[in-house]
Amino acid sequence: MKLTKEQREQLKQKYGGHCAYCGCTLSDKWHADHFEPIRRNNDGTCLNPELDVFQNLMPACPVCNKNKHSYPLEYWRKTLEDANRKLTKYVANYRLALMFGQVKETTQPVVFYFERYGTPDVIREASNER
């Protein structure tokens, strides 16, 4: 779906100019992510056009959009929550960083910015970043 400049600005402001997922302030290079993933044929046409609508879009930073890819939200959340295990198992430098206290792991669940948006703390944080 091609967005007009007005729609693009409206989408960017959906969460106060922040990425719907991580909450970072969006730069000029932000992406419009399909919250419910769409699938495309090899020719680029959409297999589920009912999801290729403005109401299904979320403002996202490039890192979150590329990492979410075409995953459903809960699958992506579980992937992110499993990151500590994967890093510890497969990345030697991460294990060393843990051993030397350079990083601290957490088992807190992943809560996306849009899930917190509108709560007093998030509003205060967003105001301070402007």
TrEMBL record:
GO terms for molecular function: endonuclease activity; nucleic acid binding; zinc ion binding. It holds the Pfam family HNH. Keywords: Endonuclease, Hydrolase, Nuclease. It comes from the Bacteria. CDD domains: HNHc. The keyword Hydrolase applies. The keyword Hydrolase applies. InterPro entries: HNH, HNH_nuc. Residues 6-66 form the HNH nuclease domain. This is HNH endonuclease. It comes from Acinetobacter larvae.
